[in-house]
Amino acid sequence: MTSVQLNHLQAPELLSFLISEGSKLLIRELPSIFDGSAKLKAVPQDDSNATLAPKIAPDEAWLSFDQEAYVLHNKVRALAGWPGTRTKVVVLDDKSSQQNVLELKIITTRVCQDMELQAGEQDYVIFKKGSLVFPCGGGTALEVLEVQLPGKKAINAAAFWNGLRGQKLKKL
């Protein structure tokens, strides 16, 4: 599998692939580890090529929708689990003119392939084909498939949208 193909795998598929390939490698190399011949094949690490990764801070979890969708999608995948990725949205109620700010944890996403936004839709989140569609930088869009409200269980985008009962969502 090429690196391009690996980039498009979601976390569960990637984990399955890594388990499969890792177990094959372990079965192939385990005998040489037991008989001591693995030391002959070992290559010492070149410390001059080693790099340190900085510690991930919780404030890096916030999504900025002025970035392109593929950048945000990769960030969601990279920070899955802890700290996860977050955004704030404004819930607009046209009937009562109320506005409530909600913090959402973004659980799963995909890059929207066929999104054409109308004028004035750049600030609003729409619901399309079972996902929340967030307009992003460069004319791209991110489909959010699962979200989680603070202190609640993760739910799919359709359930979240149905809970809005006709209210609009705006990016903050």
UniProtKB/TrEMBL annotation:
Q: Which GO terms describe its cellular component?
A: mitochondrion
Does Protein biosynthesis count among this protein's keywords?
A: yes
Q: Say which domain of life the source belongs to.
A: Eukaryota
Alphabetically sorted, this entry's keywords are: Protein biosynthesis, Transferase
Q: Which residues form the Formyl transferase C-terminal domain?
A: 55-164
Q: What GO molecular function annotation could you give as one example from this UniProt entry? A: methionyl-tRNA formyltransferase activity
Entry-linked CDD domains: Met_tRNA_FMT_C (cd08704)
Q: What is this protein called?
A: Formyl transferase C-terminal domain-containing protein
Organism, by scientific name, is Arabis alpina
